[in-house]
Prior knowledge:
This protein is mostly helical. It has one helix and no strands.
Amino acid sequence: MAYKTINPYINELVATCAALRTDELEHAVTHTQATYTP
């Protein structure tokens, strides 16, 4: 992670939020690919 904080709780929270955003992005991309019809 690029995020560095003094408080490990905040650091973990930021990492978790980043992971959730990544999961949501991957899900959205997969959904778009699955429903895309040229």
